[in-house]
Amino acid sequence: MKVIVIGGGPAGMMAAIAASIAGNEVILLEKNKSLGKKLLITGKGRCNITSSLTMEEFIKNTPGNGMFLHSAFHRFTNQDIIAFLKEQGLSVKEERGNRIFPVTNKAQDVLACFERKLKQLKVKIFYESPVTEILTDAENKICGVKTKQVTLKADKVILATGGKSYPLTGSTGDGYELAKKLGHTITPIKPSLVPLETYETNYQEALQGLSLKNVAIKLVDSANNKEIYEDFGEMLFTHFGVSGPIILSGSAHLVRYQGIEEKFKQKQIKLKIDLKPGLNKEKLNDRILRDFEEFKNKSLKNSLDKLLPQKLIPVIIASSQINPEKKVNSITKQERKKIIELLKSFEVTIRNFRKIEDAIITCGGIHIKEVNPKTMESKKVKGLYFAGEILDVDSYTGGFNLQIAYSTGYVAGCN
Questions:
Q1: Which of 353, 371, 400 is the last residue of a domain?
Q2: Tens digit of pLDDT for each residue in 22-68?
Q3: Edge-to-edge, what's the strand order for the sheet holding 99-102?
């Protein structure tokens, strides 16, 4: 059987490998001059390959249609991708948060494993070959593809062109148009795992570049005091708002929250940051009292160095409306209570998502009701398969989205 895979990212490469192992003649079409451009920037260039969690936990960490992936996740697991890389000579290591990385800390080495296997299997790779049309016969069955250069015959086509995030890597949404022409529904395309903009411009300037570790956050709809998301870990203040792992994961929930655009406009979505999650209010009060005793002759602005990062001190004091020059030995119990409230629930107002080009992944894509979850084959066109981010599935950060690529690519390739 002649199989054409469109897209040379992790999903496409895995699909081509699986299809070749299954005994097919495989051609991989890539619009760029090289494979895996987006793979190379994952995990800040280190490649967070997958997670060590169970596959059931993978589903729980996939807010975007996780149950659709049940079969694919169990047919090609995190252990399978680790074994695949090991066969190609690359060992992995586990880091904080169940994250799996190559021991070399180089995404390039992960890509090299895929490239070696493709070469070993003699998969034909055509570079700089964007597909303009997927061809079907009179019975609406796949019969080939057209590129800008040539028309190729095929019995099966696997569409693995990615989403719309990071367009410089080649993810420009081409696959959606190809699928739409064949009668597929594309659910709304939105950014997911994306930084968030905030209204408080004074904080943006004062806190830009400040990274906070081991903080707890809550995203809250203040209109009804409904908690949308909570997490613990690392975040970052930026020139436009907030970013970092726990913010990105929170965005995956916000993008699905009903009426989110209007709620942003009404300033209803609040980010509440617990800067000292390891201390309850009583213990935090004791800690502050000890610091104040040590610095009793100093002003408030010079007495919080042990408690807070330097950049955060003037912001917290300004929010408390306490005179920064006030000596700590004259700070009242009520003023101390204000500081504690701020440290346990420092609040900013979310204005919007950053644009889709800044997102790690895309929310939305090929409607999953039009795809067989056991094979990844289209229910509308015989011989058309989908893999990776082009599908309407997406997860949190932590290696889950790459595992979606491998698992769906494997299933699409070997069926």
A1: 353
A2: 999 999 999 999 999 999 999 889 999 999 999 999 999 999 899 99
A3: 50-51, 99-102, 92-95
